[in-house]
Design a protein that fits this description.
single chain; 429 residues; alpha/beta; Thiol Ester Dehydrase, Chain A; Rossmann fold; 6-stranded parallel sheet; 16 strands; 31% helix; elongated
């Protein structure tokens, strides 16, 4: 067994985007990455494979099976484990943050299909000129393989499915009975439009590549306008408002609703995703709460009394007992809000904390676990601060996006109907 560590920088992703032609925003545009279900930009699958194939000797293979289990992020260590067995097979495992991300099986037998799908929903031919071929010459990886992976990435990211694409698996096979030509051919088939999965096949020179893609979900929000009763409740608010994490999700929605009340000031914090709204009573502040919690405390001191809404969160990962999750969740969901609460005790402030209804369903995820720990912690302490904790059900946010585009209610759909929601959100006695 051999273990190696590599890093892929964001600058490498940008360079690969220009080299391969796959300039899909999910890889290079910060805002698009932040607004996706990943919460950040992700690395091109083809870039990862090319880097790995440059490290290991795969010249004698007949087929390679690659499975992408999860996304790879930039600037975080990749642990690559190589295993050889007696049957001349190689198994490669790529881990990031103690999670298995990619598995690769290198075989000395052909195991893949070799014909294009019969039902064609899309197709594309690329002509590889001699000039184009020269830029792929590499002494560490066969040019035809490098071309195939780059054009696979370009096809998926820029053509079909395009903007909202993901690669699920890639199976590479050597083709002995090929005829030399300059055309790289790809055909695709989505057998059932109800499901986002697409089967694809590429043929180029001595390679046949069978790969599966899918259409990733995108957040769609049709927000209802508040009725008269909700407007009246908002206009009765007397305290200025501090929303920690207001660039997306519930924080963003509440920021827009509270802007109705022009008699109060709204202080809205954000980190990566800039707030574009410019309400007359809105003050926007860029703060990384993980690094500059003290800046939040300064705001509280300056503007008290405040209604404080806490929505700061890292990307939510449903995997259990992942150390990276545990560390981040402890900071975001317990340590930081408790620090804010303890400081706010000396002022006449109200504090809102979003918990999750998954606690009621005995959910075992780290996310639910830490939300529940906070609940017990705050209720066990004798604080003068008025704290509202609301167990929110699954709603339409980027954190809940899935491949099957599940129809979920928006936060305000529930708020406008549910009196308990209104009581806790508006700090009604």
């Amino acid at each position: 067994m051999i273990t190696k560590n590599i890093f892929i920088k964001k600058s490498e992703g940008t360079k690969f985007a220009n080299f391969s032609g796959d300039r899909n925003d999910i890889h290079i545009n910060d805002k698009v990455g932040y607004q996706s279900q990943f919460g950040e930009n992700i690395v091109h699958g083809a870039l990862i494979l090319i880097k790995i194939f440059k490290i290991i000797d795969i010249k004698n293979f007949k087929s390679i099976k690659i499975r992408f289990n999860d996304f790879i992020k930039y600037n975080s260590k990749l642990k690559i484990i190589f295993k050889n067995n007696k049957t001349n097979k190689q198994k490669i495992f790529i881990h990031q943050n103690n999670q298995l991300k990619i598995t690769i099986d290198v075989n000395n037998i052909n195991t893949l299909r070799t014909s294009f799908p019969k039902k064609i929903t899309n197709k594309k031919n690329f002509k590889i000129s001699t000039k184009e071929f020269k830029k792929f010459i590499d002494n560490k990886i066969e040019p035809n393989l490098k071309i195939s992976l780059c054009y696979l990435s370009k096809y998926v990211g820029m053509h079909y499915p395009g903007k909202l694409s993901l690669i699920n698996s890639i199976n590479i096979q050597k083709n002995k009975s090929y005829k030399k030509n300059n055309y790289l051919k790809i055909k695709s088939s989505q057998f059932d439009k109800r499901f986002p999965y697409i089967k694809n096949m590429m043929k180029f020179q001595n390679y046949i590549i069978d790969f599966e893609t899918s259409k990733r979900p995108v957040l769609k929000s049709n927000l209802k306008l508040p009725n008269k009763k909700i407007v009246e409740k908002i206009k009765k608010i007397k305290n200025d408002i501090l929303i920690i994490g207001s660039s997306s999700g519930i924080g963003y929605d509440l920021m827009k609703l509270f802007s109705i009340n022009k008699k109060i000031k709204i202080i809205a914090t954000f980190k990566n995703n800039k707030i574009t709204e410019n309400y007359s009573n809105l003050k926007k502040i860029n703060i990384d709460v993980l690094k500059k919690t003290k800046d939040i405390l300064k705001i509280i001191k300056k503007y008290n009394p405040l209604n404080i809404y806490y929505f700061a969160t890292p990307p939510i990962n449903n995997k259990i007992n992942n150390q990276n999750n545990l560390d981040l969740y402890k900071k975001f969901y317990i340590k930081i809000p408790m620090k804010i609460i303890n400081y706010s005790n000396k002022y006449k402030c109200n504090f809102f904390y979003p918990s999750t209804k998954f606690i009621n369903e005995n959910d075992k995820s780290d996310y639910s676990k830490f939300k529940f720990i906070f609940e017990k912690k705050i209720f066990a302490s004798s604080k003068k601060l008025n704290v509202s904790i609301l167990r929110i059900p699954k709603i339409n946010t980027k954190q809940n996006l899935n491949l099957f585009n599940e129809t979920l209610p928006n936060f305000r759909d529930i708020l406008f109907k549910d009196k308990i929601f209104q009581k806790l959100i508006f700090f009604e006695s």
